[in-house]
């Protein structure tokens, strides 16, 4: 019989990250698919009552918690201690957790202490022929794998954006609190603060509703025979800041910087979407001045609604790769859209 433990950490303001609510859906579905299983929820944070009440009606049989100031912020030593305590208390055979940066750092160490395997980047956990399986992508090989393990306990980290966030009536559950003595040696690392990227232009922001992709066309000669890289920079940044979208790029555009050509200085390889870049999961995507070649578009496989602006009616997007292709000059389109956004905000 599987004993499922869903491990969640609580934000410093007492709320739960969106990835935690998605993991609740995953654990609940898994427990429903394994009728003989039990499922327990484990919470870690400074104060966990508010978070517990938020998900109190999710169906978990027990709610365990490790709480206190030592667990307010991410720190490997104390996070691993709390997670290990909860795994042992629940006698978990299957530990499921959202792949937040906090758990991605702490849970591999916990796995070592429990002599358990740990798998990350799971985008699905299911039951197939009675066996628990996870699904994950091997992007470079463009393979989706279904994997299982017989060893227990087994820890699975779920990628954000793979499940619908759980929502239900708030209800305060009976909490079983575990007091954990924290030796001074585990407090050697001090949490100073979080540095968030500015308005989403420095890296891809997974939580944004829209992914805006800039292609190499922004830096190519335009109809007047001139390159307009500075104007392209200004238009793109204005759009990103006004719409609060996430910024991505094609490989050609980020490669240009290393070749000394006219570039958009804020784009780096961290923005690259595609076969050798990232595979974001935004609900909508808008590609501009990007041809839509297969190695790029393969990175769009999880984007639900795809639109593109390109001068070329025969570009890759026109060949079934986009839902809507606007055959238009992206400079003109984005200039107009920025004007509309400016009017809309004022
Ligand atoms: C092994 C391998 C891996 C690869 N991995 C990746 C990857 O991970 N990601 C990736 O992106 N690429 C990848 N590539 C490269 C990919 O094949 C393409 O070369 C690249 O995506 C092209 O980038 P682009 O569309 O921005 O540029 P281009 O092909 O130069 O296209 C520019 C486009 O801009 C349009 N344009 C120009 N001016 C305007 C305007 N004013 N308005 C509207 N449209 C305009 C043009 O019509 C053109 O379609 C890979 C290639 C290989 C071989």
How would you characterize the overall build of this protein?
The termini are far apart. The chain has helices spanning 18-33, 49-54, 76-90, 101-114, 229-243, 251-258, 294-297, 330-345, and strands at residues 3-9, 38-45, 62-67, 94-98, 118-122, 124-128, 131-138, 143-148, 154-158, 175-177, 210-214, 246-249, 284-288, 305-310, 324-327. By secondary structure, it is an alpha/beta fold. The radius of gyration is 23 Å and the shape is elongated. Helix 3 crosses helix 4 and helix 5 packs parallel to helix 8 (330-345). The mean pLDDT is 92. It is built from 8 helices and 15 strands. The chain has a 7-stranded parallel β-sheet, with helices on both faces. It has a 5-stranded parallel β-sheet with strand order 12-11-13-14-15. A 3-stranded antiparallel β-sheet has the order 6-7-8. It folds into 2 domains: 3-187, HUPs (Rossmann fold); 199-345, Rossmann fold, CATH 3.40.50. Flavin-adenine dinucleotide (FAD) binds at residues 215-217, 220, 222, 250-253, 272-277, 289-291, 293, 295-296, 299, 309-312, 315, 329-331.
| CATH fold descriptor of the largest domain | Rossmann fold
Helix count? 8
Radius of gyration: 23 Å
Helix content: 25-40%
**Kindly, what is the distance between the CA atoms of the first and last residues, rounded to a whole number of angstroms?**
59 Å
What is the structural class?
alpha/beta
Bound molecules: flavin-adenine dinucleotide
What spatial form do the alpha-carbon principal axes imply? elongated
Strand order of the largest sheet: 5-9-4-1-2-3-10
Contiguous low-pLDDT stretches (5 residues minimum) are none
The chain-level mean pLDDT equals 92
Tell how many strands the DSSP assignment holds: 15
Number of domains in the coordinates?
2
Strand content: 15-25%
Tell me the name of the CATH homologous superfamily of the largest domain.
Answer: HUPs
Which CATH architecture of the largest domain would you pick?
3-Layer(aba) Sandwich
What's the CATH class of the largest domain, please? Alpha Beta
SSE sequence, one letter per element: EHEHEHEHEEEEEEEHEHEHEEH
């Amino acid at each position: 019989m599987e004993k499922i433990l869903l491990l969640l950490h609580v934000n410093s303001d007492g709320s739960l990250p969106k990835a935690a609510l998605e993991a609740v859906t995953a654990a609940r579905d898994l427990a429903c698919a394994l009728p003989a299983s039990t499922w327990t929820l484990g919470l870690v944070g400074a104060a966990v009552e508010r978070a517990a009440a938020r998900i109190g009606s999710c169906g978990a049989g027990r709610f365990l918690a490790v709480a206190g100031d030592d667990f307010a912020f991410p720190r490997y030593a104390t996070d691993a201690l709390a997670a290990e305590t909860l795994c042992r208390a629940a006698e978990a055979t299957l530990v499921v957790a959202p792949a937040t940066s906090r758990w991605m750092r702490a849970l591999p160490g916990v796995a070592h202490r429990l002599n358990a395997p740990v798998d990350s980047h799971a985008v699905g956990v299911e039951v197939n022929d009675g066996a628990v399986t996870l699904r994950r992508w091997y992007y470079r090989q463009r393979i989706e794998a279904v994997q299982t393990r017989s060893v227990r306990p087994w820890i699975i980290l779920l990628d954000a954006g793979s499940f619908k966030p759980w929502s239900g009536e708030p209800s305060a559950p009976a909490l079983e609190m575990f007091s954990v003595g924290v030796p001074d040696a585990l407090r050697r690392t001090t949490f100073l603060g979080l540095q968030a990227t500015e308005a989403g232009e420095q890296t891809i922001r997974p939580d944004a509703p829209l992914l805006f992709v800039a292609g190499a066309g922004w830096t190519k000669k335009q109809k007047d025979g001139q390159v307009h890289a500075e104007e392209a920079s200004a238009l793109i940044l204005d759009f990103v800041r006004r719409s609060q979208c996430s910024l991505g790029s094609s490989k050609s555009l980020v490669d240009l910087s290393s070749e000394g050509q006219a570039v958009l200085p804020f784009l780096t390889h961290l923005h690259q979407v595609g076969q050798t870049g990232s595979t974001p999961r935004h609900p909508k995507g808008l590609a501009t001045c990007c041809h839509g070649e297969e190695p790029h578009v393969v990175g769009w496989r999880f984007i639900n609604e795809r639109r593109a602006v390109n001068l070329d009616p025969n570009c890759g997007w026109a060949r079934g790769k986009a839902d809507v292709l606007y055959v238009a000059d992206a400079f003109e389109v984005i200039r107009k859209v920025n004007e509309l956004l400016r009017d809309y905000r004022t």
